[in-house]
Write a structure and sequence with these properties.
The chain is an alpha/beta fold. It starts with a strand and ends with a helix. It has seven helices and seven strands. It has one domain: Rossmann fold, CATH 3.40.50.
Length: 246
């Protein structure tokens, strides 16, 4: 089974309307749930029921991009069996994804899940969508320290650490650049700074997708249709990374 880590914040967990999912469930796709049990694919992927690692519990999870990614990848490679591993958490900053092997940390919990799920296959990729909280007014998150001007270096260190800890030095990584927002400018003073930081990332075996042309359902979260498109873009970018001559 090809395993994919789904990490980041709420736009990776997904906030799409569950009643609007509208995708067939690929037969060769499975979810390694927050309860550490494998299950058939159905949204929300990041279902908090019986969650083991409370650090990433997200009761608001809805439709995200994961199943759309898996379906699009399955269409490109029908023989591939895919396992999706949710690790995202709402309102997180990039520094919370720094290397920390405790399963009470986001990094440690994600790594623990990857290793537990690896009895059924090998980690084949990391999908990452995060940055909105780093772009926000720090006063809105008094218990956090957003790092908008250090996003690229923090992200690069995280990728290097995951590759090292998983012993996969060429692990393909696809990350999403934050999109648009309807928050007042004073609420997200570092929005463009984070987007520029994300554009500046230069890492081998890594690709960025854009999302700023896709409709939102609120100030920062996408519509269900947008999440489906984000999933397709993740799949296209991943395929280009892993099949450069096609």
């Amino acid at each position: 089974m090809a395993l994919f880590l789904l990490a980041g914040q709420s736009n990776m967990s997904g906030r799409g309307n569950l009643k609007q999912f509208g995708l067939k469930h690929p037969a060769q796709v499975y979810i390694f749930g927050n309860d550490y049990r494998w299950r058939m694919p159905s949204p929300p992927i990041d279902n908090p029921a019986e969650q083991v690692d409370k650090v990433s519990r997200d009761p608001q999870a809805g439709v995200g991009s994961g199943l759309s990614f898996a379906l699009a990848l399955s269409e490109k490679d029908p023989q591939r069996t895919i396992g999706l591993i949710p690790c995202a958490m709402e309102e997180t900053i990039i520094s919370q994804w720094a290397r920390d092997l405790s399963d009470r940390s986001l990094y440690g919990s994600c790594l623990k899940r990857a290793r537990a799920a690896s009895t059924m296959g090998e980690v084949a990729g990391l999908l990452f969508f995060q940055g909105e909280t780093d772009a926000a007014d720090p006063k809105a998150f008094p218990n956090l320290t957003p790092m908008p001007t250090d996003w690229a270096s923090q992200f690069s260190a995280m990728v290097s650490d995951f590759r090292s800890d998983l012993a996969l030095p060429q692990l393909p990584v696809v990350f999403a650049q934050i999109g648009t927002t309807t928050f007042p400018a004073q609420s997200v003073p570092n929005w463009e700074t984070v987007k520029q930081q994300q554009r500046s990332v230069e890492l081998p075996h890594t690709s960025m997708i854009t999302t700023d042309d896709l409709p939102l359902q609120d100030e920062v979260h996408f519509t269900t249709a947008s999440y489906r498109e984000i999933g397709r873009r993740f799949a296209d970018a991943y395929w280009t990374l892993t099949h450069p001559n096609e």
